[in-house]
Every structure is written in C-alpha cells, then in structure tokens.
Amino acid sequence: MERIFATYLIETPYEVEQAAAVLAGEQSSGTFVSVPGETEELRARFAARVEHIELLDEVPTPSMPGDFLPGKIYKQAKVIVSWSVENFEYNIPALISTLQGNLYELRQFTGLKLDDFELPNSYREHFRGPKFGLRGTKELAGVGPKRPMVGTIIKPSVGLTPDYTADLVRTLAEAGIDFIKDDELLTSSANSPFAERVEKVMRVINEHADKTGKKIMYAFNITGDCRTMQTNYETVVNAGGTCAMVSVNSVGWAATKQICNWGGLSIHGHRNGWGMLNRHPFLGINFPAYNKIWRLAGVDQMHVNGIKNKFWESDDSVVRSIKSCHKPFLNSESVLPVVSSGQWGGQAFETYERTKSTDLLYMAGGGIMAHPSGPVGGVSALRQAWKAAVSGMTLEQAAQEYKEFGESVLKFGRKEVNAQ
Amino acid sequence: MERIFATYLIETPYEVEQAAAVLAGEQSSGTFVSVPGETEELRARFAARVEHIELLDEVPTPSMPGDFLPGKIYKQAKVIVSWSVENFEYNIPALISTLQGNLYELRQFTGLKLDDFELPNSYREHFRGPKFGLRGTKELAGVGPKRPMVGTIIKPSVGLTPDYTADLVRTLAEAGIDFIKDDELLTSSANSPFAERVEKVMRVINEHADKTGKKIMYAFNITGDCRTMQTNYETVVNAGGTCAMVSVNSVGWAATKQICNWGGLSIHGHRNGWGMLNRHPFLGINFPAYNKIWRLAGVDQMHVNGIKNKFWESDDSVVRSIKSCHKPFLNSESVLPVVSSGQWGGQAFETYERTKSTDLLYMAGGGIMAHPSGPVGGVSALRQAWKAAVSGMTLEQAAQEYKEFGESVLKFGRKEVNAQ
After folding, report:
1. Which residues contact B167 (CB under 8 A, 6 or more apart)?
2. Could you tell me the fold of the domain covering A3-125?
3. Backbone phi, then psi, for A111, in 5-degree steps?
4. I need a surface site. Which of A170, A377, B100, B314 has the fewest CB within 10 A?
5. CB-based contact B353:B392 (threshold 8 Å)
6. If residue A85 lies in a helix (H) or strand (E), which one and from where to where?
7. Following DSSP, what letter does each residue of A207-252 receive, concatenated?
C-alpha cells in the first residue's frame, strides 16, 4: 500500500528513537495506554512508522518549554515518518491534521518543525494543482519566458479611494507594469468598496488593453467569508479581470481550494501570518511543506519574500522557497513565486545569480511608488535591473547604463552598493 | 468611529515605543518609505494607533531570530494597538490578516504574540456566534446544569471498522455516556468509510434513544474539503445525528464559518495544530484571541486541553482557556470548553476547584476505554469523580466511596495520589 513520507526537525531531551516513536504513536493510535481493539494486524496496517533518523546537533538549552530531564542535553535530529494512504484517503485537511496536528503539543519534544513531505503517485489522479500556475499566469499577463513579471502593490495599504487607485493604475499601466495588487490589509473598506474599486480599476485596465493589446493583471483581494469571496470573485470575472488574491492562512485550506476549483482566475496566494508558522527555527513548518499544501489547493502564485527583504528571513531561506515553487510536484503546474518585501531593482542581481531564473513575479511597493521620478521611473528601473541582471551586468554597471535604475540606486541602494 | 483593540506580548532590542510604532505602521500603511497619496488626513482615519505600553521584563537573549544590536538587552512588554472598523468593515479573514499577518515577520521583534482582542458593539449585529454554544449543546445532549457532559474518544484513532465502532458505542451508551467522538485522525478511511460509520453508529444511538429517551451526542469528524464536508454534514443530519466535528485549523476559518451557518448540528471545534500557534511563549497567539476568532465563526464546542494533561501545556493556561470559553463575547452564546488529553476522573477535583464550573465537556479516551472494568467502569468512574468533586469530597474520599473510581485511581492515579 502506498505511503506518505514526512520529514521533521525535532529536538528532545529523550533518546531520539524513543521520541520519534511517541510522535508516530500519537499520530496514529493516539492514546497513552493500550486499549482493547488495538491488534497487531491493525497496527501493521494503520500505524505510522519511523523510517529514518539522522542526528544533527546537541544543545544545552531547550528551544521551547517541554519535559525537563536534569543533566540532559537536547538532541536535534531529522526524522522521517510515514503513514499509509489508507488512513486518510485523499482528504487534505485530514492529512494536515495528521502531519501538523497534536504532535506539536507533545512534551517529549522541545522543538518540532515539519520540513517537507512526499505524496505517492495516486494523488495525481485526485489533485489538478494550480489551474494556471507559473506558465499560465505569465501567459495570462502577456509576459514571455525571458523576464520576470514586474509588479507593485497599491500603497498606502488602506485609505485610498477607488478613483485614486484607478489613477495610479493608469500611471503604472503607461509605465509598462505587468501586475498590480491590493494590499493584504485592504478588502472592502469604508472609502474603497470592493465592487467600486473593481469597476474603476478594470475600466482603466480594459481601456489600456484595447489600446495596446496588453492586459495588466490586477490581484483584487477577495479574502473574506465564503459568500463574500464568491460574490467578489464573480465581480472580478464579470469585469474582465484575470486574478484574485486570497490571504490563504486567514481564509483556510478548504475555502481556498473551493475558489481555486472555479478555475476562472489566477489565484494569488498571500501568506501573511507565515511568520507565526515559520519564524522559530524549531517550531512550525518550513516552506517546502507549506507550499505543497497550497499547491494541492490549486494556488497559482505564492509569496516567498525576497533577497535582502525588510523582514527577518534569511536570503538562503528565500532562495530555497523560490526553488520549491519551481520544483515539480505531482506532475502539476509549478507555482509562480512572488518575490516581495522591501524590494527594488537592486536585489535583481543576486536573485538572478542564485536562482538563474526569470520565472518570478518580482514585486516592489515603495520601491516603485517612491522612486525619485515617480511610479513611471520605478517601473522602468525594475525592468532595467532585470535586463541588466540577466545579461550579466553588475549593479554598478547597470546604474551607469540606465538613468532610472541609477536614480533608484541613489535613493534605495546605499547599503547594497557599499557592501559590494 | 468604533475601534478594534488588540493586545500583544512583544520582545524587542529597540525602544518599545519605536517597535510598537513599526508594528502599527506595517499593519496599516504598510511600506518602508513615505509614498505619494499618504496624507495626514488618511493617516488619522485609517492608521493603526499604539494605545498603551506596559514594560514587563528585560532578558539578555532573544526568544527568536531578529535584529541584533550589540550590547542591547531585549525588552518584553504588553502593547495595545487599535484599528478603525472602517479598515475592514465586518470581514473576519481581513481582521485576521491585520491582527496576525505580516507583523510576525518584522525583524524589529524577537518575540510577538497576540494575546487577546476586543471588538466594538456593532459586531453584534453581524455575528450570531455559536448557534448552540454551551447551553444549547448540553441541552441537545440532555445534560443538566449540575454536572459536566462526560465524553470519550473512539481509540485506537484509526483502524477500527464501523461495526466495531458501533459495538463500542452500544457498550458506552449502556454505561451512561453523554458524548462520543471520532478521533481527529479519522475522517473516512479504507476500513471505516464515513457514511457506513454514521449509519451503523446512529442506528445504535437512535435505538438507545428510543428505549431510554437519551440521545447520545456523537461528533462525526466531517473535516475535509468543502464538498466532502457538505456531503458528510448532510449524512449526519439525515441519520438523526446532533453533532459534527471540524479540525478548525486544517479546514480554516471561511469554510468552518460556512458549516456553522447551516445551524443543524452542534459543531465540535478540534484545535489540533494548536501547538504550532501557541507553544512558544513569545510567538503566535494565546487562547483568548484564538477562541474569539472561532466564536465569530460560530463553533459551539472548543478544545482546551485539561488539568495535568499529557501534553506540555500548564494547568494555569488550561484554566485560563476554560474561563475564556465561559466569558461573554458580543452577547452571543458561550462556547462549551472541551476538556481533553490524558484525562481520567482524577483531574475532576482540581478542575472543579479551579473553575467552580460544571459547564464542561469532560473527555477521557484511554481513561475510559482502558479502565480495569472496561468502558462501563470507565464511564461510571468519571461520573462518580465529578459527583464527588462537586459535593466537596477529596480524591481519597471518593476513591473509598466509589468502587469504579477507586479502581481508576489504582490504575491511572499513582502520581496524583502521591502528590497529595
């Protein structure tokens, strides 16, 4: 029978073998004493198995509260556990409850993080994955393989009127932007009702498309309860939009899956709240596992932070995330990695150097909107930076070559230039 | 204009005022530089405000990776931040993205935990809260105010057939149980398809109700994608069931809300995965905030762990959770706290002592099923323990007075007896 394999990083004051056995027991038989009805045959068929243990490190203090054994050190290890598909069939929320359920509460661990998981081939028949994904979304936005999509976020996050937003969209359209999104803090607010914003923004986008043949992708933030999301989704479709944004953690898996099933829009997955799930090195979930869960829902675009971002995340972690979006999974479309957070053209060089890929949505908020020559200069600078990075130029060469990029280096780039 | 207030526990190497201002900025204007369009007027109307700061402690090492300032100590504080309701209207996923969104990624913090939040009165018109809640669920199960509902979990979690499960239900019914639930690891499995399990279990429960007038509440685990949950919900309703269980973290807020809206079943909210969100003292979310989010969805019953549980959580934290379930919120029904995890009758005494309440669903898995006299003895022992606790007896007195409870003390209670 096919099995599902999950890799965990664990920390424990006990013997690692013993702690891993507790994890497997809790997540399959699930009680603290032997009970009638638990036969050897049942155990063989349904029990989770510890498949592999690799010791990593030993530390004197625990990462989190848990059992304390006097004089003990805390062992960190990588552990692989497997379950039969018979346990959950093809029910992803049930899989989530198994891979990342009660096990985080076990006192035998002072650290536990789900790193990645692998599903057997039969899942291919049950999950389409992203309807558009990486290739489909770039095609929908009319962006070829040789460069990333260039995008921006409407800022300030809340407070602008639909008219002001539509005016900004016009300016950005004329500057050659590929993608614009609502901020995740804005859904429908007192002075920017959702339907009115869609109507006014799409009028600009449709007119621009009629004139130029290029339809800018705008990710309208439809995040809400099921009814609101359905209404808002239909509003976007009827206005000729191509994309909707969902704050996936806030909405949850089941409703996000439902939205992706409809298949009429590329779904922009915003992972706000991710820090709660990932920030501690020994608690929560790492991106490769997280990303697969949302690919199973059918999310087409997924946020991954960016090189030298304004948040805490390391560049290595960002690069790993970009690569997991690109990596094949269940023969479905790859996910478009959304590079965002404190970005401007300056990070294009290292991003390209480390990923050798233009299969990105490269987003700058303030980096475009606060460019010295305004949003038009901001978009130009980003396009220039990527052109230069792909052609093998350095940041300094590009700053000499391109006026708008040069201006952005002066405004945003002091740290990066000095560091080189 | 009405405002929403959120309380955070924070840790930072910066001045607390400065770090709190970054949090408020990120969660309302949302960019790292001033941008055109961000006027003073907009800021006054839509910007988040830091309302209150209370220094708690200073520590030499950070709780989590973040900015490092040489020679700095890390300050821990309680901070209250507020937002205008105009920012999100009555959209709870948008509220979640604001209260627990990107702020967890800010490098200015080495710890951040949402502790609680308060909503203005106008939310009462938009959210019914739990349809059944604490009182309605106890009534539905035919349990009066003088004692808790007594429940158990079918164990082992996975592997039993519907026939075996139905036989166990018959035994437990005859023993006088009020409530039984599927384990969170079981939805529909190869040898226990959901519909067959409902049919066979409900036949036993309905027959028992016909004979005795008491309809045992069985929480069938309907967790899954939207379509599966709807089908499974209808299966339970059509079979005469009164309850469905949802793993709320795995399913997510929007789909859970949808299910609660239907209003035909008491919804048992299982919080598996909670450890990811709460285990670290300075990361994630505390129960008072978490519980309110799910009360807004309409969940009727919510897991809270138990005194001397098998997990890591402290008794103080458990007691705080029970009290937050009981506490009024938006004039809606309170939530029934589900006390569970390594429970047997022995903890009834301290649970009652510390909460002075019988408004609980008190659950034992192994504590009932592995009782020396079998499940019948297990149920009797729990009922006896609560009767004794409410009447003011000590555990020792109860062990002398009641045969089955005495047996459970011998099997499960060594630690507790010695400790007294």
Report:
1. none
2. Alpha-Beta Plaits (3.30.70)
3. -170, 140
4. B314
5. no
6. none
7. HHHHHHS---EEEEE--SSHHHHHHHHHHHHHTT--EEEEEHHHH-
Chain A hits for B66, Cβ within 8 Å? 312
Chain A residue numbers with beta carbons less than 8 Å from the beta carbon of B370 are: 31, 33-36
pLDDT cut 70: percent of chain B above it: 96
Q: What is the dihedral of CA B7, B9, B14, B16, to 10 degrees?
A: 40
Phi, psi of B55 (to 5 degrees): -70, 140
Rounded to whole angstroms, the Cα distance separating A112 from A102 reads 11
Residue B339 tokens read as 């006390």
Q: How many CB atoms sit inside 10 A of residue A240's CB?
A: 13
Q: Which residues of A88-107 are buried (b: 16+ CB within 10 A; e: fewer)?
A: bbbbbbbbbbbbbbbbbbbb
Instruction: Check CB contact of B79 with chain A, cutoff 8 Å.
Output: no
* Spatial distance between the Cα atoms of B225 and B35, rounded to a whole number of angstroms: 41
Query: H helices of B9-84, where?
Result: 16-26, 40-46
pLDDT category, B367, cuts 50, 70, 90? Answer: confident
Answer yes or no: are the C-beta atoms of A284 and B276 closer than 8 Å: yes
Statement: residue B398 has pLDDT above 90: yes
Residue among A379, A415, A417 nearest A399 (CA):
A417
In tens, the pLDDT along B80-102 reads 999 999 888 899 999 999 999 99
- CA pair distance B209, B217, nearest whole angstrom: 11
CB < 8 Å to B254, chain A: 224-226, 229, 251-252, 254-255
Closest-CA residue to A1 (of A126, A123, A120): A120
Q: Identify the segments of chain A with pLDDT beneath 70.
A: 30-38, 414-420
Q: Which of B395, B349, B387, B399 is nearest to B144 (CA)?
A: B387
Helix (H, G, I), strand (E, B) or coil at B333: coil
> How confident is the model over B313-320, as a mean pLDDT?
95
Taken as a whole, chain B contains a residue count of 420
Give the end-to-end CA distance of chain A in Å, rounded to a whole number: 54
Q: Is A149 left (phi over 0), alpha (psi -120 to 50) or beta?
A: beta
Backbone angles phi, psi at B383, to 5 degrees: -60, -40
Q: Is B236 left (phi over 0), alpha (psi -120 to 50) or beta?
A: alpha
Residue spans per domain, chain A: 3-125, 133-418
Q: Does A156 touch chain B (CB under 8 A)?
A: yes
Q: Scanning the structure block, which residue is given the tokens 């530089």?
A: B33
pLDDT, one tens digit per residue, over B329-350 is 998 999 999 999 889 999 999 9
Residues with Cβ < 8 Å from B240, sequence gap 6 or more? B202, B205, B206, B215
**Mean pLDDT, residues B153-165 taken together:** 86
Q: Is A213 left (phi over 0), alpha (psi -120 to 50) or beta?
A: left
pLDDT tens by residue, A5-33: 999 999 999 999 999 999 998 888 765 44
CATH tag, A133-418: 3.20.20.110
**B287: Cβ contacts below 8 Å, ≥ 6 apart:** B278, B304, B317, B320, B321, B324
Which pLDDT does position B415 carry in this prediction? Answer: 52
User: Cα(B169)–Cα(B154) distance, rounded to whole angstroms?
Assistant: 9
Instruction: Check whether B32 has a pLDDT greater than 80.
Output: no
Nearest residue of chain B to residue A258 (CA atoms):
B226
pLDDT of amino acid B210: 98
Q: Is A250 within 8 Å of B93 when comparing Cβ atoms?
A: yes
Q: What is the pLDDT of residue A34?
A: 56
Q: What is this structure's pTM? A: 0.95
Is the Cβ of A274 closer than 8 Å to some Cβ of chain B? yes
| Contact call for B251 and A252, based on CB within 8 A | yes
